[in-house]
Design brief:
By secondary structure, the chain is mostly helical. The protein is built from 14 helices and six strands. The longest helix has 21 residues. The chain is globular and about 85 Å long.
Length: 444
């Protein structure tokens, strides 16, 4: 509110949160006394402002005058000085609103995508999307002490933007694009990110990356893609940011770990401020420092982000063929008509087949993988195949139970995990040595 240190860039004309995070560091942290790499000649002595409770926030809001909805021409007295509200939210009329631990939910999906886009486009020096443009260099001259990065005049009078370590050369960009184009990710883990590489420019570029592509690239591929391309301190800061989002998006969270992430993201953001120009730090970079707190209070992010809702909305939009008359897009087909709702999945090989004396595991039709060339299995692979068939046959379930009972008698106190490991090692040999009926031996 009135304690914010954000400001508007003079040349870029955009809100900026550069050097707004040193106040959250410990009082003895060396970054607080650094006069060279943040705002020139400035040290940080301010302490972080405590987070307001719901009751305190409600007391602030209730003092605001009533502003009719849609009337934004006249700002409330004190706007930008003692508060940043344009009206009182209707949610404060709910009796329980002030008791909510989270009164606004930051969407990790969009924060993550915006952070990745800014980093990747700046490092890859994408024209029109990089945060390291001419206006950013002009603002850099006014705010920071980095003379090597300022715009310079050449001998012919043209303005030259010096190359910096956080952007790649054309050869490095081409190497990264070539590496991305050769990526082969597991089926269902991510989409084909290689399709995003275009060769329209001499050194290639990426376009058309979806939110989940950015999610996978930021958390898994970013450190690998830039490992041999960037200066090590820069690569180290980006890797720590990648690790931060990876830890934040885990399926299960620990309250102690989230408290550690709250401290780590402050230092990571300050390291990025030492690298990138002020124009790089928009609101999305600032919001990252609030994500660990919301995860600690609200739980794992997969229950609060927008992925399931965006996918559902995308499916519904694709189902609408007549946007002028949406109701005309509803069709009813007989059950025997093949549609998207009842079509056979792509991994289905034609359904079940008659057993005719075969074991249950062979009741599913199959097809050759790839070109289907014939190979001879090694002893190890043959043993693994036999074991898999035996442990997945309904006809063998009784013998699996006998094996488990015998193992428990032989090794009292054995765990279920050890029993499962023992099955894969010895069950095929055990069932063969027990002289089972010939019908079972034939398939063992």
């Amino acid at each position: 509110m009135e304690h914010t240190k954000s400001f508007t860039l003079q040349k870029g004309q955009k809100p900026c949160w550069f050097d707004c995070h040193r106040r959250f560091l410990p009082e003895n942290h060396p970054f607080r006394r650094n006069r060279e790499n943040f705002r020139k000649g400035k040290v940080e002595n301010d302490r972080p402002v405590p987070r307001l409770s719901g009751t305190e926030m409600r007391a602030h809001v209730m003092r605001l005058p009533v502003v009719p909805f849609g009337n934004n021409d006249k700002k409330i007295s004190g706007f930008g000085e003692s508060h940043n509200w344009v009206r009182t939210s209707i949610f404060w009329e709910l009796p329980y609103w002030s008791t909510n631990l989270i009164r606004h939910n930051l969407d990790v999906m969009h924060v993550e995508k915006n952070v990745f886009d800014n980093i990747f486009n700046t490092v890859m020096n994408v024209t029109g999307k990089t945060k390291d443009n001419d206006k950013a260099r002009l603002d850099l001259k006014d705010i920071c002490k980095r003379p090597a990065l300022e715009l310079q005049k050449s001998s012919n009078g043209k303005t030259v933007k010096p190359h910096v370590r956080y952007t790649l050369t054309k050869k490095q960009i081409e190497d990264v694009c070539t590496w991305i184009k050769s990526l082969k990710l597991p089926d269902g883990y991510a989409s084909n990110i290689a399709r995003c590489v275009t060769d329209k420019t001499p050194h290639g570029k990426l376009k058309g990356m979806k939110s989940h592509d950015c999610h996978v690239f930021l958390e898994r591929l970013l450190p690998i893609a830039f490992r041999d391309q960037l200066y090590k301190p820069i690569w180290d800061a980006l890797t720590k940011l990648s690790r931060f989002f990876n830890d934040l998006c885990t399926k299960s969270l620990n309250e102690k770990d989230m408290s550690i992430l709250e401290k780590n993201i402050i230092e990571i953001t300050c390291k990025l401020e030492k690298i990138f120009p002020p124009g790089f730090f928009d609101s999305m970079k600032h919001l990252t420092i609030h994500l660990p707190y919301e995860a600690r209070v609200g739980g794992p992010v997969q229950y609060r982000w927008m992925y399931p809702f965006e996918r559902l909305m995308g499916m519904l939009k694709r189902a609408v063929k007549n946007r002028a008359c949406v109701e005309g897009s509803i069709y009813y087909f007989p059950d025997e008509v093949l549609t998207k709702a009842n079509r056979i999945p792509r991994n289905d090989d034609g359904g079940n087949i008659e057993l005719n004396g075969r074991l249950f595991v062979f009741g599913l039709s199959g097809r050759a993988y790839g070109k289907g060339r014939r190979i001879f299995l090694s002893e190890k692979d043959l043993h693994a195949s036999h074991t898999y068939i035996l442990l997945n046959c309904e006809e063998i379930d009784e013998f699996v139970r006998l094996y488990d009972d015998e193992l428990k008698v032989k090794c009292p106190g054995i765990t279920d995990k050890d029993i499962q490991i023992s099955r894969y090692k010895d069950f095929a040999r055990w069932i063969k040595d027990k002289a089972l009926p010939k019908r079972i031996n034939d398939f063992g």
